[in-house]
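Q: Convert this sequence to structure tokens.
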Amino acid sequence: MFLLLLFAAPTICLEGGTIVINGLDPKTVTTADVAVFVEPRSKDQPCLLGETRRDGGKIVFVPRFPLTAGVKFRVVVGGSEIVIGAPKIEKDPVATVRVFPSADVLPENQLKFYLHFSVPMSQGDVYRHIQLLDDKGKPVELPFLELDQELWDASGKRFTLFFDPGRIKRGLKPREEVGPALVEGRSYTLVIKRDWRDEDGTPMKATFTKGFKVAPPDDSQPDHKTWKISPPIHGDDKPLRVTFPKPMDHALTQRMIWVTDVAGKRIAGEIELSDHETVWTFKSVGSWRSGDYFLVADTRLEDLAGNCIARPFEVDILRPVEKKITAQTVRVPFRVK
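A:
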């Protein structure tokens, strides 16, 4: 119980998100005589919605919605008005847990970043908190695709940040007029500013930066035939290991590759990515049984530049292409001995 304010009569405190008033004369003060307002109270301001009930010798106000931490409230009891405050909950500062891709060398036609935070973040105006600096410390002009509908996952902890495709694809007007967002041979710094707050208003612990160098553009499709598979051994609990010739998209690689038996039944297990998203491991639930298996990949699986197994991202602008890639799969067989 957190005691907020003490009078000879009455006393008011917060208990489990409710406002409790003690020391009232039940003959002179009823539940109808109690109202709660957000402080400062303005003229014609409505009171907080909730239920007011008598519990023995005290009156309890149960708000319909949780009381906001750090906000003050004015409790009106009969002819008296008392200001109390909901205690502010101390929270750890927001941390940018990881940014993917994790490599420090990226292709000139890098498509996107994934920003992972420790808690759900505030949304609706995110791009003002993000900046890309060149090797001279100068901001790159409008490098990212600023969408009205921001690309958050369901948890509110992962934000997908796309480069402007018009600055990536050759032959398009933005690239011809302004140039590519990233230039081969130069270095850049992705900056996530400290003033970005979480959904409760808590600021970041510190400004986050990720430096990287730019390699030549990657226009080649991922080829599943070049993946190196290191199968586990029968009865072993070591994971299946798959090595890619180049880094792959962090989010897509975790959900677009799986393992099946010869009958097509998925094998349950846990997936991990390592070595800058060039190594995919799969730890089966239980020990591996000897026999034949398939590593299955969705052909929409992408590399860092957005090239997928089905087709490259850098398409011929003079040749019509499908507007949508049909979901298909490829299989790579392996055997557990």
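The chain is about 5% helix and 35% strand.
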